[in-house]
Amino acid sequence: MKHRPLRRRLTALASAVATAAALQVAAPPGPGAAAANACANPVLASNLDGWGSLDGGWVTRDPVGDLPGVNWAFDTGGRSFYMPQLSVTAGQTWTFSARDRVVYGSGTARIVVEWYNSRGRYLSEQRGPITTLPAFAESGDPWTPVAVTATVPSGATSAHVLQEGDFGTATGTDFKATQCDYRLGAAPPPSDLAAVRHGWGTSVPSQSDEFNGSSVDLSKWGLFGADPGETTGCSPGHNNHGQRCASQTTQGGGHLSVTGTAGGKTGGLYSRMRAFKYGRVEVRERAMPLADNGGRSYHAVPLLWPENDDDWTNAEIDFAERDVNSPQVELFVHHDGTQNSCSFHVDSTQFHNYAVDWQPNSVKWYVDGNLICTVNASIGYFNSTNGGAQLDMFPPTGTLMRPARQDVDWIRMYANSYTQYR
């Protein structure tokens, strides 16, 4: 479907930006040349050439201090803008991308590529996938990759690369973008693993588990409700609500699963592996309701907790905490008797990758490979992990619960330069 409002706005701007556009239309690499970034002025190093508003919003060149290799970004109070144009040849496939963020709001963005012929006539367009831009967090926003791969249609000689944002009813937003990147050829999608995208190396096998066996590895884990090495028993649940029973935690089909019943019987596990201080942990996890009986929701969380759980207020990192079926997951970093938090909207009934990079003075939180926020906090305690399998009953015993199941595909621990083991 043609997106005519954007095209009309761009046409109205054409004469005003003709001179600048002529300077910004980059040629593709020649035959045999290695693919390189063909976006002119990708990081706005000296000026705003090639960048501008499509809807009359104010624009500025904004300083950047938290994206490696980038010192400036395009910033607008509007919700649609153009990036540098590109000369193209019919039949080529290009991948167009940028890094975006929205301040004082949240919403979505996507790239739209409009194709024009040599006489400047609009031919057609391709609209990229919608990408979620998370809410502003006090401790900082992520820069989110936004991209589209498109093939140049017959007769097209130039690509006008645009962006659209949708921030709902929010007002006073800053829509920012930088690091435009135009590559000849279809680029592979970025990994949704923080460990891969950010180069964490190889996981530590003795501190990790793929959960591919037919039963829980009791040398690595203890089951809630059972003594170490045992598979039977029950104990009081979270805050003495309901029961935690070993029978509710099972492994099979490549997953670890914890099931909560309508009567408040649930489970989970705890680490029997070596405690560590500082490091990186990533888990692939989901939690879903199993029936709609009108009951209350269970509470799911992957976390790191201290060896001595009496000190949890000083040394716990909850890195995907939520009620089952909530549209929002949260990070909580407990330290010095207080806590910091940030949140992200995601369908947590589907598998997602949640990760933390714990360093002496900070905790970075990632969802599907994207940095969501950084909490500046110091935690000096050694910790262990429950493997992401903790399904808690928060309401009092006797409350009807909505049956639910938490599945963990794997959990992987990576050492960083500060990692210590007990």
How would you summarize the topology of this molecule?
Blueprint: H1 4-24, E1 52-53, E2 59-63, E3 72-76, E4 80-82, E5 86-87, E6 93-103, E7 107-116, E8 122-127, E9 131-133, E10 144-151, E11 158-166, E12 174-184, H2 194-197, E13 221-223, E14 234-236, E15 243-245, E16 249-252, E17 255-260, E18 265-266, E19 269-271, E20 276-277, E21 279-289, E22 299-300, E23 303-306, E24 316-323, E25 328-335, E26 338-345, E27 352-359, E28 362-367, E29 370-375, E30 383-385, E31 391-392, E32 404-414, E33 420-421
Parallel strand pairs: 15-18
Antiparallel strand pairs: 1-4, 2-3, 3-12, 4-11, 5-11, 6-10, 6-12, 7-8, 7-9, 7-11, 13-19, 14-15, 16-17, 17-32, 20-33, 21-27, 21-32, 22-24, 22-31, 23-24, 23-30, 24-25, 25-26, 27-28, 28-29
What does this structure look like?
The protein is mainly beta and 422 residues long. The protein has two domains: 187 residues, Jelly Rolls (Sandwich), CATH 2.60.120.260; 226 residues, Jelly Rolls, CATH 2.60.120. It is 6% helix and 43% strand. It has two helices and 33 strands. Strands 1, 4, 5, 7, 8, 9 and 11 form a seven-stranded antiparallel β-sheet that branches. A seven-stranded antiparallel β-sheet has the order 16-17-32-21-27-28-29, with no helix packed on it. A hairpin with a 2-residue loop joins β28 and β29. The longest helix has 21 residues. The N terminus is likely disordered.
